[in-house]
Amino acid sequence: MTKHAAYPSEDMVAAVAAPAPAGRHFTSFQPLKSASLDCKKHASGAAVVGGSWFESMKASSPRCAADAEHGDDWMEKHPSALASFESLLAAAKGKQIVMFLDYDGTLSPIVEDPDRAIMSEEMREAVRRVAEHFPTAIVSGRCRDKVFNFVKLTELYYAGSHGMDIQGPANHLQATAEVVHFQAGSEFLPVIEEVFGTLTAKMEAIAGTKVEHNKYCLSVHFRCVREEEWNAVNEEVRSVLKDYPNLKLTHGRKVLEIRPSIKWDKGKALEFLLKSLGYAGRNDVFPIYIGDDRTDEDAFKVLRNMGQGIGILVSKLPKETAASYSLSDPAEVKEFLRKLAKSKGDAPTMKMMT
């Protein structure tokens, strides 16, 4: 692994004596009453619920994505990154590739219990090989410590809580008592803790919900909630947030995300990491961001505005996206990473950082 630039000293970078404590676990799982835990079966017999939020959630979180195929028009606009691999290499020729990877739905499959979203050893090896050649970061809505415990690769950059908590590779930090973290929105930690307790109590009444504490943000998962109760989840969360105007609500694939209302997201995290690596304002860098969720769109938009690198959406269904290319699932992500690592030996024109 080549040496990467250390994080600069900025107003929002804090030096602490030891790594932050491990992230909070999920609240206890509330099993569905008189129903199987097979979430794919929950759609049958669902009541028709109106409202733009409900329709938007159905569109962004398809239950049977594996049975669908991309439309020809969508694939023309967002071609397969595997089928287009040689042209991508040509675009990256002579430039430093920097890899950014979402976790859930990208490196691991979406599962009924998010606490069991374990990546395979084959995927871990593919990521490790890419990181040998290119600076590589995991950018996730999860707590940074939890993502690290899933991935278990010390040579990566980890940006947890939608990029609000970033740490550089452990094997590149100086061997001192201090570990440098980038942390945005630390003043919100007490509020996040308070809302976590309130939501945990509220969600006990809706079977199948989970509230995940991601340190700087919260995730309310409803993958195993009956479809006719989705609006109830949304309404309960919104009722709690009425008392917290400094928090904002967004949604992803059957998850509601609660974050501080600050100008920080996965796109900002991408920009910060590029700056930390010494690539701000340079045209010899080729960032690649792979993600599957709405929150990854902020990073895709940054790359489009930069006019450098590419965004790759992981999806089996056509979706509105700022990404330029697509991959169907984590299996294709793994194959793409393998090809990229192998290409390093075949394409010496791709520069390594020295």
Q: Which term fits the overall shape?
A: globular
What name goes with the CATH superfamily of the largest domain? Answer: HAD superfamily/HAD-like
Q: On the 0-100 scale, what is the average pLDDT? A: 79
Q: What percentage of residues falls in helices of 4 or more residues?
A: 25-40%
What topology does this entry show?
Elements: E1 13-16, H1 52-60, H2 72-77, H3 85-92, E2 96-101, H4 121-133, E3 136-139, H5 144-151, E4 157-160, E5 165-167, E6 179-183, H6 189-203, E7 210-213, E8 218-221, H7 230-241, E9 247-251, E10 255-260, H8 266-276, E11 285-291, H9 297-306, E12 310-314, E13 325-327, H10 330-346
Parallel strand pairs: 2-3, 2-11, 3-4, 11-12, 12-13
Antiparallel strand pairs: 1-6, 4-5, 5-6, 7-8, 8-10, 9-10
Helix pairs in contact: 4-10, 6-7, 8-9
Structure in words:
InterPro entries: HAD-like_sf, HAD-SF_hydro_IIB, HAD_sf, OTSB-like, Trehalose_PPase. It catalyses: alpha,alpha-trehalose 6-phosphate + H2O = alpha,alpha-trehalose + phosphate. GO terms for molecular function: trehalose-phosphatase activity. This protein is an alpha/beta fold and about 350 residues long. The protein folds into two domains: about 15-25 and about 70-185 and about 265-345, HAD superfamily/HAD-like (Rossmann fold), CATH 3.40.50; about 40-65 and about 185-260, 2-Layer Sandwich (Alpha-Beta Plaits), CATH 3.30.70. The protein is about 30% helix and about 15% strand. The chain contains ten helices and 13 strands. The protein has helices spanning about 50-60, 70-75, 85-90, 120-135, 145-150, 190-205, 230-240, 265-275, 295-305, 330-345; strands at about 15, 95-100, 135-140, 155-160, 165, 180-185, 210-215, 220, 245-250, 255-260, 285-290, 310-315, 325. The chain has a nine-stranded mixed β-sheet, with helices on both faces. β7 and β8 form a beta hairpin. α4 (about 120-135) packs parallel to α10, α6 (about 190-205) runs antiparallel to α7 (about 230-240) and α8 packs across α9. It is globular, with a radius of gyration of 20 Å.
